[in-house]
Amino acid sequence: MATMEDHVARWFDVQSVPLSHTFPPENRPGKLPFPTCSAIPIINLSNPERLDTIQKIIEAGRNFGFFQVINHGVSESVSTEALNVLKELFNMQDEEISRDAHKNGWAHMGSTSYAIDGIHLWRDNIKHLCHPLEKCVQHWPQMPTRYREVMATYVQEMRRLSFRILEIISEGLGLEKGYFEEISQVQFLSGSNYPACPDPSVTLGVLKHFDHSLITILFQGNVEGLQVLHDDKWIGVGVVPNAFVVNIGTQLEIMSNGKLRSAEHRAVTNSEEDRLSIATFINPSPNCIIEPAKVLINESNPPLYDSFLYNDFIVSSKAFGPLTELVQTKD
Ligand SMILES: O=C(O)CCC(=O)C(=O)O
Ligand SMILES: [Fe+2]
């Protein structure tokens, strides 16, 4: 058991939000809490009516860019253990984490990385590649000792679930079986810890952004904080026990020729409790040409997007900023 003497102050052990974490008014989330939205669809993946599931997922992708899945076949212990081991990791000292990150080549962003003009996000974050697992796992955190084993199980389950959902989407769009699988050989993980914050109205856990993936699956435990921009309003994604939040990435929006939409989202903090989340992204391979699927294009449905090489987009748009090499091109 840790005693008071063991306690070393961390960047978030403060009574008020320091200027270094106070966003300018235009970036602040403003008055909280936000209404959580019961409109974001909750989809039962064990529904025996497959056509019904397909229709609901396509509709959710078109209207919100977000949905939640339940009865997905991933055992609750897999995701809660993953959150637990992430919590253990972030309970370690910053220097210990950074040393390991530096040695093994994963990214650790804590109170030292800027979100905008010298202002920090209210979070600690880890990022690493996940596929192919045998090549990646040796670069993952060494501590906590069970991190590799627990996360390996988690990311494999997420990969399986991602492709299950992508298969449903591909069927719904009328694409050939396996359309997405062969072009999306990149998977990476982003784990975040958003400590309880003395004033959530001036901070953000994550700035508003699109995911430049095909699909993202997020586990947010039982603490809310994710918000989605819908009809120009921020809405909170409510906690549904043992559910995963799924969102359509910009690359899937393009491949679907706009039949599915990617939505901007962000994470806010709260003053009561720490929030942890794990996002896993399925990305196109860097050498993949991104364009609307040919079968969706005809005279009455012209392509709404130009084609491009995924890697060119990532490099020119700085989609992953300084992490580009880590999350996209290293194997
Ligand atoms: O933690 C969250 O709720 C959101 C994280 C997120 O959007 C991301 O990592 O891309
Ligand atoms: Fe995101």
UniProtKB/TrEMBL annotation:
**Residue ranges annotated for the Fe2OG dioxygenase domain, each copy included:** 182-284
Query: From its record, what is one biological process in GO terms?
Result: response to molecule of fungal origin
Keyword Amino-acid biosynthesis in annotation: no
Provide the protein name.
Answer: 2-oxoglutarate (2OG) and Fe(II)-dependent oxygenase superfamily protein
The yes or no answer to whether the keyword Iron is present is yes
Similarity remark: Belongs to the iron/ascorbate-dependent oxidoreductase family.
Tell me the keywords, alphabetical order.
Iron, Metal-binding, Oxidoreductase
Q: Which domain of life is it from?
A: Eukaryota
User: InterPro entries recorded for this chain?
Assistant: DIOX_N, IPNS-like_FE2OG_OXY, IPNS-like_sf, Oxoglu/Fe-dep_dioxygenase_dom, Plant_2OG-oxidoreductases
